[in-house]
TrEMBL record:
The keyword Cell membrane applies. InterPro entries: HATPase_C_sf, HATPase_dom, His_kinase_dom, PAS, PAS-like_dom_sf, PAS_fold, sCache_3, Sensor-like_sf. Keywords: ATP-binding, Cell membrane, Kinase, Membrane, Nucleotide-binding, Phosphoprotein, Transferase, Transmembrane, Transmembrane helix, Two-component regulatory system. Its EC number is 2.7.13.3. Pfam families: HATPase_c, PAS, sCache_3_2, SPOB_a. It comes from Kitasatospora setae (strain ATCC 33774 / DSM 43861 / JCM 3304 / KCC A-0304 / NBRC 14216 / KM-6054) (Streptomyces setae). PANTHER family: SENSOR HISTIDINE KINASE TRCS, SENSOR HISTIDINE KINASE YKOH. The chain crosses the membrane at residues 167-193. GO terms for biological process: regulation of DNA-templated transcription. This is histidine kinase.
């Protein structure tokens, strides 16, 4: 014998389970409705039997017949009332419970089959009882003479078959309604199952579970952040990498992006207010590349790639490329100087050759010494020396103001290198052949950085836009997008509680001022080295 198996397909399981539930609910509902109807019919029958008994007992002739034990009169009266009321029986007894009337004359003179004592005590009784004529709804009342003396009882019974007949006639309508509801429910279930079959592509339940497990493993295993939004902009799903890159709480599902992220380009890109492919954005000190794709239901799926390390490498590559170009130019200049020196020696002008050597070596040393007097942090001094060499080759005069002073007490030299390197690069791009001026001041533990240039400056209406991720006034190189440097500088400043402002400087161009609180250690405090 082949054993029945539960269907594997989603729509088949839904159809079968819903059909079973619909049939069950319909049956239970019909049963719950019929149960009180049956009880109500029983109560109604007992009340009718009691009313017939009361009318019979109100006849003085019936009471006299019971008192005189006149069976003939009692039988004649009882049968006349039974036929008129269509009762199953009307039994009259004396004060001992002996029948004076019965539908079966042979039972007259015998004691009744049910207890007559409650009625003989003066109580009116209703009940569903089994007697000699079967199960009936009964009503019993005492028989009283005009002086109030109880001389017997009247017991009236209505057949259970008549009660059940009324119930069956009513149940037909109830069952018809239940059947109509069942048909409608099964039809709706069939329509829903067909629609679910189309939506699930007739996939099996086991396959759905496997797909869910695979999806969870894939989402949490990939190294890209993934964020799914519903049509209202609420987060449906965020994998582990998205939580890390965006610094979102674990319970972010159901909340909107605008509630979780500060206003800015990143929130605009995630919500679709800014559109495009491979859009750069900044979250804290991370550089992210965001791609957003709309879904058919009006939501969206967004992927996030962390380009922080790549951006740092690209910037280092840019610096290296600049230094390479500067070294190449210096090599060419060095060759010219060597040729000059060789010519002086061949002409026998040894004194002029010695003076030429002293002059050339003294120029580079003097510049390094000037920077070192004002900037005691070796990393920052090296950066400024390198930038000065690049500036020379580009025909730009890079200077450190005489009132600058930076002690060798930085908490995080790399943060200052990022800030200063971006500002100096932007200043040199803005002032080709002009002047760039750097000012570094220590005020307690706060470091103030100012970079001014002699370029065209920044219009007042653009002084906030220059800090937006992705906005730039320069052509972007092929290897990376522009518009992230100033955004990173601003995020670094704000992360430490500082600020970044732009205005007009003393050279006529733009002046960027950065305030970095707690950037310097207190006197006598040793630096904490990372990865020591």
């Amino acid at each position: 014998m082949r054993r029945l198996r539960w269907p594997r397909r989603v729509f088949a399981q839904l159809l079968l389970s819903q059909a079973v539930v619909t049939v069950g609910v319909t049956a239970v509902t019909a049963g719950l409705f019929l149960a009180p109807v049956s009880a109500e019919l029983d109560r109604d029958a007992m009340q009718r039997a009691l009313s017939i008994a009361q009318v019979t007992a109100a006849d003085p002739a019936v009471a006299r017949a019971a008192a005189d034990r006149d069976a003939a009169t009692a039988q004649d009266t009882a049968e006349r009332i039974r036929r008129a009321s269509r009762a199953e029986f009307v039994v009259i007894t004396d004060d001992r419970g002996i029948r004076l009337s019965h539908t079966d004359p042979a039972r007259i003179g015998l004691r009744v089959s049910t207890d007559p004592e409650p009625a003989l005590r003066g109580e009116s009784v209703t009940a569903i009882q089994d007697g000699t004529l079967g199960r009936t709804a009964r009503g019993k009342v005492p028989l009283r003479l005009p002086d109030g003396r109880i001389v017997g009882e009247v017991s009236v019974g209505l057949s259970d078959d008549s009660i059940r007949g009324r119930l069956v006639s009513m149940a037909g309508g109830i069952l018809l309604c239940a059947g109509a509801g069942l048909v409608v429910g099964l039809a709706a279930t069939l329509v829903l199952a067909r629609r679910l079959k189309r939506r699930t592509h007739n996939i099996a339940v086991a396959d759905i579970a496997a797909l869910l497990i695979e999806r969870e493993a894939m989402l949490h295993g990939i190294r890209e952040g993934m964020l799914a939004l519903d049509p209202a902009g609420r987060i449906r799903l965020a994998n582990d990498e998205a939580l890390r890159l965006l610094a979102l709480p674990d319970d972010c599902a159901g909340r909107t992006v605008d509630d979780l992220l500060p206003p800015g380009r990143l929130a605009d890109v995630l919500t679709g207010r800014v559109e495009g492919a491979d859009l750069p954005a900044v979250r804290d000190d991370r550089v992210l590349v965001v791609n957003r794709m709309a879904t058919a239901d009006g939501g969206a799926v967004t992927t996030l790639r962390d380009r922080t390390e790549l951006e740092s490498l690209v910037r280092e590559l840019d610096h290296t490329r600049g230094l390479t170009e500067a070294l190449r130019a210096q090599d060419h200049e060095h060759a010219n100087r060597m040729h000059t020196l060789l010519g002086l020696l061949e002409l026998g002008r040894h004194d002029q050759a010695a003076a030429f050597i002293s002059e050339q070596s003294g120029t580079q040393a003097a510049r390094a010494a000037r920077i070192g007097r004002h900037v005691q942090d070796p990393h920052t001094a090296a950066l400024l020396a390198g930038k000065a060499a690049v500036a020379d080759e580009r025909g730009i005069r890079l200077t450190v103001t005489p009132d600058s002073h930076l002690p060798d007490a930085l908490h995080d030299p790399r943060a200052l290198l990022t800030v200063l390197g971006n500002l100096v690069d932007n200043a040199m791009d803005a002032a080709p052949g002009g002047t760039v001026e750097v000012r570094l001041r220590a005020v307690g533990s706060t470091l103030l950085v100012e970079v001014a240039d002699s370029g065209p400056g920044i219009p007042a209406d653009l002084r906030e836009r220059v800090f937006e991720e992705g906005w730039t006034s320069k052509d972007a190189p092929a290897h990376r997008p522009r518009g992230l440097g100033l955004a990173l500088v601003r995020r670094l400043a704000e992360r430490t509680g500082g600020r970044l402002a732009v205005g007009t400087g003393p050279l006529g161009g733009a002046r960027f001022t950065v305030e970095l609180p707690e950037a310097l250690r207190a006197a006598g405090t040793e630096p904490v080295l990372e990865n020591a």
